[in-house]
Amino acid sequence: MSVKPKPLGPIPQGFSVIDGELAIGGRTASELIASSQHTPLFVYSQDLLRARMDNLRAAMPERIRVNYAIKANSFEPVLSLMNELSDGLDIASGGELDMVKAIGADMANVSFAGPGKRDSELETAIAVGATLNLESEGEARRALDTADKLGKVPRLAIRVNPEFELRGSGMKMGGGAKPFGIDAERVPALAKEIIAAGCEWRGLHIFTGSQALSAEAIAEAQCNVLSLAASLTEKMGAPLPKLNMGGGFGIPYFHGDEPVDIRHMGKQLDEHFSALPDELSGTEFFLELGRYLVGEAGVYLTRILDKKVSHGETYLVTDGGLHHQLAASGNFGTVIRRNYPAAIANRFDAEPSAIATIVGCLCTPLDRLADRAMLPEADVGDLVAIFCAGAYGASASPSAFLGQGPAAEMLV
Amino acid sequence: MSVKPKPLGPIPQGFSVIDGELAIGGRTASELIASSQHTPLFVYSQDLLRARMDNLRAAMPERIRVNYAIKANSFEPVLSLMNELSDGLDIASGGELDMVKAIGADMANVSFAGPGKRDSELETAIAVGATLNLESEGEARRALDTADKLGKVPRLAIRVNPEFELRGSGMKMGGGAKPFGIDAERVPALAKEIIAAGCEWRGLHIFTGSQALSAEAIAEAQCNVLSLAASLTEKMGAPLPKLNMGGGFGIPYFHGDEPVDIRHMGKQLDEHFSALPDELSGTEFFLELGRYLVGEAGVYLTRILDKKVSHGETYLVTDGGLHHQLAASGNFGTVIRRNYPAAIANRFDAEPSAIATIVGCLCTPLDRLADRAMLPEADVGDLVAIFCAGAYGASASPSAFLGQGPAAEMLV
Question: How much is the ipTM here?
Answer without folding.
Answer: 0.95
